[in-house]
Amino acid sequence: xxxxxxxxxxxAGDWEALAARAAGAAGxxxxxxxxxxxxxxxxxxxxxxxxxxxxxxRGRDKPTNVLSFPMLERAELLGLAPDGPPVLLGDIALxxxxxxxxxxxxxASLEAHAAHLIVHGLLHLAGHDHVxxxxxAEAMEALEIAALAKMGIxxxxxxxxxxxx
Length: 165
Description:
Layout: E1 2-7, H1 15-29, E2 38-45, H2 47-58, E3 66-70, H3 74-78, E4 87-95, H4 96-106, H5 110-125, H6 134-150
């Protein structure tokens, strides 16, 4: 997966490397994300920017931790041949203030929480969701937990056993 990273108003850190590690881990647990043709833009930005995007594109007048904007339907992604030109999977935007507050509340580092949100956003771009049923939410959470475990990051949802560990 090719990543186009834009960092605006985030503290110093190797956010590009973190995003690459998160994308690699996501591709190991959701094989459809391992296609080298895929391109994703990741925006590390302010609450204000994410608030504006959330209001404009989702009709929600508040900031949120991560937004995902898919450019492919899941069937297109699953049918994507491994050879050919790059294909834009979609865009992800992370809000610094919300991410910082959530990380602190969870007792996690900003880096670990951002990695979780990048994995979460990538899974959304791949067509996974968590809003329609408990089973759907549990399946997506299991993928997130497994991807984060590959990065050495603890289960962000609690003390559940890590799948594949």
